[in-house]
């Protein structure tokens, strides 16, 4: 069961939609529900689907098979995106999801590899035909993140409204900030809970649990070993957890000028594979999926190497995630 609910944190005041914007967004959502949103083949399957969009940890853009962090849930065909690393919009298209059907976004914390494509993702949905509400949830600062994107794209947005007859994107994207663990969202179809994890120096970093009619799925976000995460994930069907393979760090660090400082950060802020196994075992999850892999751009690291440390503590099903893999 998810943790006992506690009230989410208050919204910040940097950018808050007006009542008119809120009602227009809600009206667009009702209209879309009445007419039927356009979806690609396979998006209307019943039940809850989990698709890994980007499985490489960190902000670096590389030419390998893994892209920056992002995860997709389809709940009765409705898309929920957890984290928006660079390239998320393109990965959604590759997964067969119509961008204009985007409904929810959840940001685990405000590192760029988890939020850089937040604004561009919603913008890409808008130019594809999005005209209904998108709710975005995350730690304190979501209003500033949203308002900053709207400000630097203001000229383009207003030009396209006037020149192309598009609705105002700023009426549809609704940011929600919270500042403590507890229930973030409840709908007739799912409950979303958050637990604060340990990702120094960032204090507001969260894992999410999604309880739907048929599955319970937990996504760790970035964290070192965190007992609160094990509690959040207790009894879950699937835990998607970040993983760091320490013997592979030397190759990663050899390519960067800030190697010493970066090594300190990685060891203090991310989860080694042995500790991933401990969390999965303590939580009693059914399936453990390794994602946000560090280093994630070294093809010489085998699946057996990724799972060896995990298996020392967890004897359940382990999957080494890959981009566009459905679990």
Q: Mind telling me the CATH superfamily name?
A: Ribonuclease Z/Hydroxyacylglutathione hydrolase-like
What is the CATH first-level class name?
Alpha Beta
How would you sum up the major sheet?
A: 7 strands, mixed
Residue fraction in strands? 15-25%
Q: N-to-C SSE series?
A: HEEEHEHHEHHEEEEEHEHHHEHE
The CATH topology assignment is Metallo-beta-lactamase, Chain A
What's the structural domain tally?
Answer: 1
Average pLDDT for all residues? 87
Task: Work out the helix count.
Answer: 11
Ranges with pLDDT <50 over ≥5 residues?
A: 1-41
Tell me the CATH architecture.
Answer: 4-Layer Sandwich
User: What topology, given as strand order, has the largest sheet?
Assistant: 7-8-9-10-11-12-13
Helical coverage, percent range = 25-40%
Q: How many strand units?
A: 13
Write down the overall geometry: globular
* Computed Rg: 19 Å
Quaternary organization: single chain
| Through-space gap between termini | 21 Å
Judged by helices, strands and strand pairing, the structural class is: alpha/beta
Provide an overview of this structure.
The longest helix has 17 residues, at 19-35. The radius of gyration is 19 Å and the shape is globular. It is α/β, with parallel strands linked by helices and 327 residues long. A hairpin with a 2-residue loop joins strand 2 (70-75) and strand 3 (78-82). The protein is built from eleven helices and 13 strands. It has a single domain, classed as Ribonuclease Z/Hydroxyacylglutathione hydrolase-like (Metallo-beta-lactamase, Chain A), CATH 3.60.15.10. Mean pLDDT is 87; it is low at 1-41. 31% of the residues lie in helices and 23% in strands. The strands form two sheets. Strands 7-8-9-10-11-12-13 form a seven-stranded mixed beta sheet. The chain has a six-stranded mixed beta sheet with strand order 1-2-3-4-5-6.
């Amino acid at each position: 069961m998810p943790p006992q609910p506690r009230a989410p944190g208050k919204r910040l005041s940097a950018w808050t939609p007006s009542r008119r914007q809120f009602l227009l967004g809600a009206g667009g959502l009702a209209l879309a529900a009445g007419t039927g949103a356009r979806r690609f083949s396979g998006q209307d399957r019943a039940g809850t689907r989990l698709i890994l969009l980007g499985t490489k940890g960190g902000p670096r853009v590389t030419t390998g098979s893994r892209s920056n962090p992002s995860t997709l849930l389809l709940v009765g065909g409705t898309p929920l995106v957890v984290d928006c690393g660079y390239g998320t919009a393109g990965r959604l298209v590759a997964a067969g999801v119509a961008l204009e059907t985007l409904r929810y976004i959840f940001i685990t914390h405000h590192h760029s590899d988890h939020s850089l494509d937040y604004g561009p993702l919603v913008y890409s949905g808008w130019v594809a035909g999005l005209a209904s509400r998108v709710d975005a949830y995350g730690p304190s600062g979501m209003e500033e993140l949203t308002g900053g994107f709207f400000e630097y794209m203001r000229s383009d947005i207003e030009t396209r409204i006037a020149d192309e007859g598009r609705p105002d994107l700023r009426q549809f994207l609704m940011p929600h900030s919270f500042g403590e663990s507890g229930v973030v969202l409840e709908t007739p179809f799912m409950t979303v809970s958050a637990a604060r994890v340990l990702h120094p120096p960032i204090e507001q970093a969260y894992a999410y649990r999604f309880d739907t009619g048929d599955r319970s799925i937990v996504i760790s976000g970035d964290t070192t070993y965190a007992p609160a995460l094990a509690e959040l994930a207790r009894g879950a069907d699937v835990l998607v957890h970040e993983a760091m393979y320490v013997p592979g760090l030397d190759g990663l660090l050899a390519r960067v000028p800030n190697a010493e400082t970066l090594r300190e950060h990685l060891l203090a802020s991310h989860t080694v594979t042995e500790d991933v196994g401990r969390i999965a075992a303590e939580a009693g999850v059914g399936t453990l999926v390794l994602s946000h892999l560090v280093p994630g751009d070294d093809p010489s690291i085998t699946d057996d190497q990724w799972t060896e440390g995990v298996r020392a503590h967890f004897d359940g099903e382990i999957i080494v995630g890959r981009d566009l893999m459905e679990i």
